[in-house]
Amino acid sequence: MKPEVFFGINAGKVWEILKKNKKDLGAKSIAKETKLSIEEVYGALGWLGREGKIEVINRGRAKTFKLLE
């Protein structure tokens, strides 16, 4: 599978979870709900970030992510 297809599919899974939950989630929560590895989640978040579709929220030392709509 081409890398862009792989990351695009995972980005779609992450996008769906963020849209369904309608709140910001941490990477571990996203990984649990999508059944993706944490590395796959960060790859998908990078894809979504490059497309300008997510917001990164700093919560102390933790980061959460939400969709921009």
**Mean pLDDT, all residues:** 92
Structure class: alpha+beta
How many distinct folded domains? 1
Largest beta sheet: strand ordering:
1-3-2
CATH superfamily: Winged helix-like DNA-binding domain superfamily/Winged helix DNA-binding domain
Strand content: 15-25%
What is the helix content? 55-70%
Q: Report the order of strands and helices.
A: HEHHEE
Categorize the overall geometry: globular
Gyration radius from CA atoms, angstroms: 11 Å
User: What is the CA–CA distance across the termini?
Assistant: 30 Å
List the uncertain runs.
none
- Give the biggest sheet: 3 strands, antiparallel
CATH class: Mainly Alpha
Q: How many runs of DSSP E, i.e. beta strands?
A: 3
> Which second-level CATH architecture applies?
Orthogonal Bundle
Which characteristics define this entry?
3 helices; 3 strands; alpha+beta; Arc Repressor Mutant, subunit A; 69 residues; three-stranded antiparallel sheet
Concise account of the structure shown:
With 69 residues, this protein is α+β, with helices and mostly antiparallel strands. The protein is built from three helices and three strands; from the N terminus they run αβααββ.
